[in-house]
Design brief:
Layout lengths: L7 H29 L2 E3 L5 E3 L4 H4 L4 H34 L5 H9 L4 H14 L9
């Protein structure tokens, strides 16, 4: 197997699309938000970049600290509940007999299929003969 240094064009052919995607859809929007964070509101939809730190000082307002604490509490409770429910189920699946494993997994995954099922029936109603789209 050859080193990528022997063929740099192949290396850049693989790296460049991903790098451009990250630049356009992650780094550039993040930089714009960071730049706007140093601005002040000049109108209903305008922001002047005045290089102020007042927006960051506002984070330490007691209201925001309370909301952040509540968010951490909800995240902690959700994590603990997921562990308390998910770990025994995972252990039950792993220690179940081989013939029962697919059935248990199906019973767990089945509720997540309802969204797909409802959308499928809706598309059947829309696209069938004498449906909403093809009513001629």
């Amino acid at each position: 197997m050859e080193s990528w240094r022997a063929q740099p064009a192949v290396f850049w052919a693989f790296v460049l699309p991903g790098a451009l995607w990250l630049l356009c859809f992650f780094i550039a929007p993040l930089a714009l938000i960071w730049l706007l964070a140093f601005g002040e509101r000049a109108g209903p939809v305008e922001i002047d970049i005045t290089w102020t730190l007042a927006n960051y000082a506002g984070v330490f307002d007691p209201v925001y600290i309370g909301l952040f604490g509540r968010s951490l509490w909800v995240a902690t409770v959700a994590t603990v509940l997921a562990l308390v429910i998910g770990l025994p189920v995972a252990l039950a699946i792993s220690f179940a007999p081989a013939r029962l494993k697919p059935l248990i997994l199906l019973l767990i995954i089945l509720p997540f299929w309802t969204n797909i099922l409802i959308r499928t029936y809706a598309m059947i109603a829309v696209l069938r003969t004498k449906g909403f789209v093809n009513f001629g």
